[in-house]
Amino acid sequence: MAAPAGILYAESIFIQADKQTFDGKKTIFIGDVKVDYEDIRIESPKAIVRNGKDGKPTDATFVDGAYALKKSKFSRSEVKANIINLSLLKNRIKAEGNSDTEVFEGKKPIVHINAGSQVFDTHKNIIVATENVKIDYDKIKTLSDKARITMNDNGKLDKVEFLGNAKIYQEKSIICGDKILYNAVTDEMTASGNTNSETLLDEGETNVLIWADYQHYDNISKTLITSGHVRIKYKDYIATGPKAIFIPENGSTKPNKIIFIGRAKIQEEEKYVEADRIEITLEPKNFKAEGNVQTRFTQVQSYKDASKKN
After folding, report:
1. What is the pLDDT of residues 269-304, one digit of tens each?
2. What topology does CATH give the domain 1-167?
3. Residue 107 DSSP SS3
4. Which CATH number fits domain 171-310: 3.40.1480.10, 3.40.50.720, 3.40.50.300, 2.60.450.10?
5. Helix (H, G, I), strand (E, B) or coil at 11
6. In 81-174, where does DSSP find H-type helix?
7. pLDDT above 70 as % of the chain
8. CB neighbours of 30 closer than 8 A, spacing ≥ 6?
């Protein structure tokens, strides 16, 4: 059954289109489709609205390129995707096919999310993104298999959980892990499960490489706490231990000192030092060992030198 171009109103959903057809179970809208539902507007060239047994609409699918806009008092979110599904029963929006989300505070963009798929819980303000997830927030850029983004009631970013092959780029640092949690309120980042990080120092090409089971970075104090099979490489230093803290000093915001807590070892070329506490200073480069210090030297002998003696 075909109906003339017009407007369909049912419960809290309001739909406009150039043309609509109804077969008893679903309505197909074609041409400049606009749907208003609570504080959400969705637009697309074509939409399919399905009804439940009571004849009321239960969900809508927008195809051929769709756009969704959600407004609150303090922010707005814009979503673009090949397909957008709106579930009226679950208060959920699912964007599929190169889904792209932009969250604005006033006119300022604060969060950008690109992924294969994104699911929005419109009442809880939670976004779950999957498939090659890329997120930009302030000075942070991220990559992961999956991300769970939580916004507060004012539409601002609260926290993000990155799951699977997570990688965070922040200024001169890269943090990787199986799982990374970023708290936007406290500006802290926690990585767990086979983590590694790399910090580029001001001199350009000198990096500090860190491997550990757990890493916690406080961006306000510029302090990094690592634990569990910690291994740190800096120039010709290789240090290992159960726990290490990477901190700035003398009022600087640049981390310059690494303190190993618990029995630790450090290797500098052929020199090996083991102690209860090891403190490494990056600039000027040196280290200090305290507590039951043991030192040994190894001499590497080439095969040619050994053969000459024989």
Report:
1. 889 999 999 999 988 889 999 999 999 988 655 545
2. lipopolysaccharide transport protein A fold (2.60.450)
3. coil
4. 2.60.450.10
5. coil
6. none
7. 90
8. 17, 18, 19, 20, 45, 46
